[in-house]
Amino acid sequence: MERLQKVIANAGVTSRRKAEDLIKEGRVEVNGKKVTELGTKVTPNKDEVRVDGIPIDKEEPVYYVLYKPKQVISAVNDDKGRKVVTDFLPEVEQRIFPVGRLDYDTSGLLLLTNDGEFANLLTHPKNKVNKTYIVKVEGKPSKDALTQLARGIQLEDGKTAPAKVKFQSGNKKRNTSIIEITIHEGKNRQVRRMFEAIGHPVLKLKREKYGFLTLEGMEPGEARALKPIEVKKLRELAVT
Predict the structure, then answer these.
(1) pTM summary value
(2) Three-class DSSP category at 182
(3) How far apart are CA 125 and CA 228, in angstroms?
(4) pLDDT of residue 239
(5) Domain architecture of the chain: domains with CATH
(6) Has 78 been annotated as catalytic?
(7) Which residue among the candidates 52, 103, 105, 144 is catalytic per the annotation?
(8) DSSP string, 114-149
(9) Does the pLDDT value for residue 11 go beyond 90?
């Protein structure tokens, strides 16, 4: 027997964390009875599990990389009617969802899948997959400020792990700078908060790399399926 949220996630309905929310919201039924307890265990392929009245079926796992444009929500739907990342993959029949998230005004590389186990593997705090961002900030951070970023910044929810930081260029006329930063954590709005902490607010933010994956050859709004070897390498990267 397995925990209900794991069965839902493995069926590709959503991530395990979101599956827990669905259970608590009373949107899950097991053998015709509503279940709201997170500790509930079921037997896959024997117990009938429904989410919002729809039976879950084990789908063939699929994996995509999307060049997320700005002003798009990292979700499968939005109650305010804003554009969401799955709008860019209308031909995909499986119930895919984003692996982690990028802020509404952040662009760049985002993974989508229907494989809950894969998503949990990549986003679990103990698994350190590097993510590289190109950041346009106000002013020109001093060397000491950049060293602070590299060593870790104390935020409200704890100190950030060491990061790789590289000054790329500056524009004296516009009083802006371009910085490259690589982190492996996924705190909410982490990069923006790190630069705010050193007094250089973010003007523009783009995720350029996720592990070994890049946006090479892609335009905003474009997506492609990951190759099996890329999926294998991501799994290996997450556990090394």
Answers:
(1) 0.79
(2) strand
(3) 24
(4) 84
(5) 2-55 (3.10.290.10), 63-125+213-239 (3.30.70.580), 131-210 (3.30.70.1560)
(6) no
(7) 103
(8) S-HHHHHHHH-TTS---EEEEEEEES---HHHHHHH
(9) no
